[in-house]
Amino acid sequence: MNAAKRYEMFVRFRAANPKPVTELAYTTPFELLIAVLLSAQATDVGVNKATRLLYPVANTPQAILDMGEEELTGYIRTIGLYKTKAKNVIATCKILVEKHGGVVPQDRESLEELPGVGRKTANVVLNTAFGQPTMAVDTHIFRVSNRTGLAPGKNVDIVEQKLLKFVPQEFLHDAHHWLILHGRYTCKARKPECWNCMQIDLCDYRAKTPAPATA
Fold this sequence. Notes:
Blueprint lengths: L2 H14 L12 H10 L5 H11 L6 H7 L1 H8 L5 H19 L7 H5 L6 H11 L9 H10 L7 H11 L5 H14 L30
Helix pairs in contact: 2-8, 4-6, 5-6, 9-11
């Protein structure tokens, strides 16, 4: 995909969804951090169901520490890997209180020191909570980038660096939201809805899925 096609792709994304947002429910950077931490191998819908009950009771590092791991586990039991995630959330809250005054840090190095927080999670928080032009490459973005030819790469690190290089600067802040949503609802893993895709004429994917037959 050449530069002109990339630019047009994001023009279309912006026209269709001028202010994209994450589908995770949050009101503070801390709530977002915990939601993203819980979202690994889980759906945003599932995480939101859990945090909808958790956050009215405890939505600060100190409040969750006071709650303790056992009680926290009860709130997130419906989420995959909940036992490991509960330990990571408690450990993260402890570090936030002891090292950062209960405030979510705004730099990658500090974020990635938190248990359960990798590069992708840090990128989401830096972008969504703090407005930094980062690119959080999840399975959806990895698939869309490779399938369309936008930024092909063998692993998420290569795709991330290519996206940071290839996505026009004016679109960089919102790009990862557009790409996630596109991968989640249109450019799906098993059966992409190519017939319903606004980017079909720009996309390099050869095996485009035909529209389903109508009765």
